Structures are given as C-alpha cells and as structure tokens.
C-alpha cells in the first residue's frame, strides 16, 4: 500500500469529496474511485442497489480484517472486547447534542419549506450545503458525545478523535452559516427563520467552546 495515501480520515471528514482538497492523498477517495471504475469497466451500474450492497459487504469484510490485524499489532484481544458489556449512551443527556439535534429538526423543516417555495438555480449550492451539514452536525455531535464514555481507545487516540470530530462540526457550522447568509438574498421574507437558525448554530459553537461534556 503506497505511503503517499493518508490513513482513512475516520470521523474528520465531511464526505464532500467533490470539494475536498485532500482528494489526491485520501485513500478512501482513491478506493471509491477504483470501485466505480471497476464497475464501469465491466459495464455495470455501481449505483444499482444489488451491486452497491455487494460492494458494501466486501468493504465491511475488508474493514474487519484490517481491525483484526491492527488489534493484533497493538496487542488488543478482540475476544475479551466482544464479551465486554458496552455502556449505554443516551446522547440527549448532553447539551451539545441536544442543541445540534434541535438545529437538525428546525433546519430540516426549513429546507422542506424552501423546497415547496422553489429553489432558484443560483441558490442551489447554498441550499445543498444547508441540507448536507444539518444532518452532519447532528450525526457528528452524536458521535462526539458517544466517545465520552468509550474507554476502548487510549487517551491520546481519544483526544485526536475528539478534536477531529469537533473540527468537522465547526466546519459544518461555518459553511451552514455562510449558506444561510447567502440565501438571505434569495429569500428575504425568510429573515426570521434564517436568523433563528444562525442563532442556533452560534449556540452550538458556544457550547463547543465552553463545555463539550456539559449535561443538564
Ligand atoms: S476526499 Fe472525500 S473521503 Fe477523503 S477526506 Fe476528502 S471528503 Fe473525506
């Protein structure tokens, strides 16, 4: 395997490969491109559900092998890990997740309203950002708080994981705010809703700064 390619980005990336500067160095992207090309060469449609599910099975099987190999290298016994009871996580216990989920609900309703009104072509990129990141912010916030009670990884790796997740949430917030600001020009009568969503994003940002682990 070439050293040129960075390790998979795990939770650090936002999966918007088309806009990503890391494409050239990203093994996830490279593997996916090869998967698509391979199907096209065979005259297959890679997005056919049956073909896609089959690819997914192979990806999981490869991942399982990689995990087992890594565990062996680090001296981790997966047999004992399998028998350990995983602690239950309720992400809603955490303020940051509740804020992110509330934003998800409000932004979701807003995007549906805009769909009904009609999205002008020049507002489409901002609308797409809004749609993409409202889900990602909530999902990554869930992942963030789930990691707080996960003692499977050592402290150093947990810290790297946490910082990566926080940075991708911040990126989602930044791009969502930019999208909302831009959309104001196209939807001036939605000022109230847009301002409300911006305020919610700011609250998530503040919570990330003040106390990630706060419960109430
Ligand atoms: S190329 Fe795609 S998978 Fe790789 S880091 Fe960028 S967005 Fe993530």
Report on the architecture of this protein.
It is a single chain. The chain has 216 residues and is mostly helical. The protein has two domains: 67 residues, no CATH class; 120 residues, de novo design (two linked rop proteins) (Up-down Bundle). 67% of the residues lie in helices and 0% in strands. It contains seven helices and no strands. The chain starts with 26 loop residues before the first helix and ends in a 6-residue tail after the last helix.
Q: What percent strand?
A: under 5%
Please work out how many helical segments DSSP would assign: 7
* CATH domain topology of the largest domain: de novo design (two linked rop proteins)
Low-confidence stretches: none
Q: Can you describe this structure in just a few lines?
A:
With 216 residues, the chain is mostly helical.
Features:
about 220 residues; mainly alpha; de novo design (two linked rop proteins); 2 domains; 7 helices; about 0% strand; globular; binds iron/sulfur cluster
Topology summary:
Elements: H1 27-41, H2 49-73, H3 78-83, H4 95-117, H5 124-146, H6 155-186, H7 191-210
Helix pairs in contact: 4-5, 4-7, 5-6, 6-7
The structure holds iron/sulfur cluster.
